[in-house]
Amino acid sequence: MRYFLFALTLLFTVLPKILRAQEGNQALPDPFTFNNGKKVKSVKDWERRRKEILETMTREMYGVAPGRPKNMRFEVFDLDKNALGGKVTRKQVTVHITENGREAKFDLLVYIPNSAKHPVPAIIGLNFIGNQAIHPDPGIKLTTAWVENSRMFPCAVDGKATDACRGVNASQWAVDSILARGYALVTLYREEIASDRKAQAFQTGIHPLYPGLQQREDNFGTVAAWAWALSRGLDYLETDEDIDAKRVAVFGFSRLGKAALWAGATDRRFAAVLSNESGAGGGKQFRRGVGEDINRLCTAFPHWFARSFAQYKGKDTELPFDQHFVLSLIAPRPVYLATAEDDKNSDPQGEFATARAADAVYRFLGTNGLPDGPFPALNQPLAGQIGFHIRPGGHDVKMFDWIQILNFSDLHLQK
Ligand code: GCU
C-alpha cells in the first residue's frame, strides 16, 4: 500500500512537472519562422524576421520606448584626473532631457583608467543603491533620488542617501579589476531614471515626460525605461573622446540584468551584453516552468513590464516567444549569462536552455555560438560568442563572476 501511495504521488506530482518541462522545450517558438509561417532562408530574411521579433516582444512584454530625445544635453559637472590614487580619471555627467515641457535628469559616473591606451572600451551598467554605493571614493556625488533602506544596505535616512551609503554596494562592483583590465566603468542609478517602488512607478524620473506612452497596453515599462537610459548613457559615451563607443558592453545584475539584455536587444550600438543572474524576464526560459514565473513577476513587480504582459499570467507555455528571442535580437554580438547554483528563482538550467536555443541563430549568423556540450560543471565557464557559467552560491555578483565577465570581454572587446 505504501509503495502504491508513493507511486501515485510520483505520478501526480513529479511526472507532470517533468513532462511540462520537456513539453515546454519541444514547443519552443522557432526564431526562424516568420509570423506567417514562412521560413528564414537568408541573412536578409533574418533582418526582416528580427524586426518582427522586436515588434512582438515590445508589444507583448517590455513596452514601447520613446527613442532618442531631441532635447538632451550632457553636463560634465566633475572632472578629476587623479581619482582613486591617481590611476583613474573620474567624470560625472548629468544627462538633462526635456520633452513635452517637462524635465528629467540622471547622473553618470565614469571612471577611465589613465594608463590604458585611449580611447578605451567601456562597461556600462545600472546600479541598485546610487552611484556613490559602488565605491567609497568620497568624490562621487550622493544621489538625491530616493534610496531604499534595506537589510542589505542600511544606509539611507528617510529615503535619502547619507555618507553611510558610500561604497555600501562595493562588494558587487570589481571597480579596481575592471579598470586594471583597461575598461572604463560607467554606472547610473535605477531610481533616478524610473522608480522601482510599486506605488511611485511611472511618477518620477523620465516617465512623466512621456504621458502618452502610459495610456497604452504596451506601455513603457520600467525595465524598458532602464534599458532606454543605458542607451542615453551610450549617447554620452559617443561624445567622450576617451571612450571607444564602438566597444561598449552593457552589464547588469538581476532586474538590472533584465534591463541590460533588453538594452542590447534594442540598441545595436552595444558591442556586447554581460548579464549576471538576470533570471525571469531576462535569460531564464519561461517554458521550463522552474523558478519565478510570469504570474509572480507581474504580481510582485507589475511596473517592470508592459500591462500587456499580464495576459500571460499562468500561461508561461503559451507565450508566442521565449527568452531565446531576446538573445536572438542581440545576435551575432557577444552575450554572457552568469548564473549561480543556489539562485533557484533565476533557474540556471533555464538560462542555459535559453543560451542553447539561441545558439542556432548565432551560428546562422556565422559565429561559433555557445560551445557544444551539456550543462557545464560548477566554475567551468563556456565562452564562445555566447558565454555561460554557473558558480556555487546564491544571488549575488562575486569576484568569480567579474573575472569570467572580464575574460569574456577581453576575448571580444580588446584589440
Ligand atoms: C526579485 C525578483 C527577480 C529579480 C530580483 C532582483 O527576486 O523576483 O526577478 O531579478 O528581485 O532584482 O534582485
From TrEMBL:
Signal peptide: 1-21
Protein's UniProt keywords contain Transmembrane: no
GO molecular function: carboxylic ester hydrolase activity
Source superkingdom: Bacteria
Keywords: Hydrolase, Serine esterase, Signal
Occurrences of domain 4-O-methyl-glucuronoyl methylesterase-like (ranges): 177-366
Matches recorded under Gene3D superfamilies: alpha/beta hydrolase
Pfam families according to UniProt: GCE_fung
Protein name stated in the entry: 4-O-methyl-glucuronoyl methylesterase-like domain-containing protein
Protein's organism: Dyadobacter soli
